[in-house]
Amino acid sequence: MEFTTKLELSEVIIIQWVIILLIILLTILLTKNLRKIPDKKQSAIELLVGFINDTVDDTMGPGTKKFIPYIGTLGIFILLMNLTGLVGIEPPTKDYSVTLALALISFLVIQGYAIKKNGLLKYLKGYVEPFSFLLPINIMERIMLPISLSLRLFGNMMAAAIIVEFVYSALSKIFLGFPLVIPIPLHMYFDIFDGGIQTVIFVMLTMINIKIVAEH
């Protein structure tokens, strides 16, 4: 009796791999030959890094600089996925499996940091504070975090993709040239503005929950 395994790579996975490789390549190229006196390229990089550092420090407080690489990478990765609509590719974030995976990673980071900072016993004690009968509610609150994070990002990006697709379909039936010009404002709003806002919300909620859960 023979068993065969068929490995299939979905378009969503491939797009994410391409974005990951793009981030790695840009990181290598942009951080190559750094100088004490920065040129325009290095100045732009330092502004971005400084912005991420200040955001993490202002939101999470002192002693949380260890999260800068994670928060920065998370924000850049989600933003690039949300912007793929600009090049005619549906955002991977309209797939719930993608947003759920991102939310679960943040959930593990949040709970892991809380355990590391407070110790396992104090972490578990937080589930019965301020009263022991709140245990089910506190557990549900923790469980709902990755669900709310993932559904918020997924719902907004899915809605945006459906609206843009509907507009393209409707315009193509009226006149073939319309989809080349009219949808530009839609892409400006849904891909750039809304995609950027959803990135900020996801990252900010991650940072806030890291801080709150660790202090619980």
Automatic annotation (TrEMBL):
The keyword Membrane applies. Pfam families: ATP-synt_A. One of its GO terms (cellular component) is proton-transporting ATP synthase complex. It comes from the Bacteria. SUPFAM superfamilies: F1F0 ATP synthase subunit A. Key component of the proton channel; it plays a direct role in the translocation of protons across the membrane. This is ATP synthase subunit a. The lineage of its organism: Bacteria, Bacillati, Bacillota, Clostridia, Eubacteriales.
